[in-house]
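Feature request, filed as a ticket because there's no other form

It would be nice if the structure record came with a short human-readable summary line next to the tokens. Right now we just get the raw output. Example of a typical job, pasted below so the devs can see what we mean:
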Amino acid sequence: MLLALASFLFAVARPQAMMKLPSRIQTVVLAMDTSGSMRAQDIKPDRMHAAREAAKQFLADQPLGVSVGLVSVAGTASVAQRPTRKKDDLIAALDRLQPQRGTALGNGLIISLATLLPRGEIDVNAFLNAAAEKDAKSKDAKGRGATPQAGARIDGGAAGGGPGAGGGNRNGNSNGNSNGSNNGSNNAANREGGSFASRDAAAGAGGAGAKAAAPASDRSVAIVLLSDGDSNTGPDVIDAAKVAADHGVRVYTVGIGTPEGVVISVEGWSARVRLEEQALKQVADMTGAEYFRAQDAEGLKRVYQTLSARLAFDKTDLVEISALFAALGALLAACAALLSLWWYGRVL
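Raw output as currently delivered:
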């Protein structure tokens, strides 16, 4: 009985405890790197196949009420599947993904945001125009640099930056493909979701004109970006991450590959493709999310399982637990009454 009274006293004190709470997640966008570097076989059978199979497992683990979208990220970014709860449609979209030339992670992230927030909150054109102006100013400040010579070897391979060599000659590809990548991303956005008219163009372009939300404040949405981290064309992925942070969207990043990398050969071109983690870590940190690293197929599946758990229970908060102590007190009081009846034939 004394224990019961003690529990009731604790309940009156309204104790609190840190507890994991169920998520309010409603929509997740998977942004998958489909550049030529995904042909690398440092993850068996290759990065693309391993990523596709792990993504299917991730889809299977999602609750029925969660919509998932798919964005393909190569030299341009496009919406492979708009957010849906139909897992068969998503699996079919995953199976259609094929490696392409170039890697534009900035484009991929901004298109993912526009897909995730389709009510005019992201102005893709404003962002890409601001990125182009920033790039032009940077080039003017630096002046014209020397152009890498064709046939230059990279880490023992032949000329980098050739067709499909996602981790090849970054400078050589960046200048030539930036405009095409931007236009391709605009077209993809317009095809899939119409014109993304911005609620505030400055916010869509990563500017300071709009009131920014706190990072990770929107718990109903999230982006999962899977890549080897080597972006060689298009706008800076860090600028896109700033836009995500300003809209309270978490961007979980998954690095696929190994730091030492492997040499891939495509259409007579060779390049060493490594896992570049710095940008991926920075994106996750800026948006209040997490970075995960996968160096083999099983590790990638475990990463997606962990992500599923994070999204299912993604909030830790102080919760009042008075009811627990009150229930415990009632249980102890009932036990005391039963024991009293057994021993003394009456309730004390």
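Something like this underneath would help us a lot:
Strands lie at 16-21, 27-33, 67-73, 77-84, 221-227, 250-256, 262-266, 269-273, 291-294, 315-320.
The radius of gyration is 26 Å.
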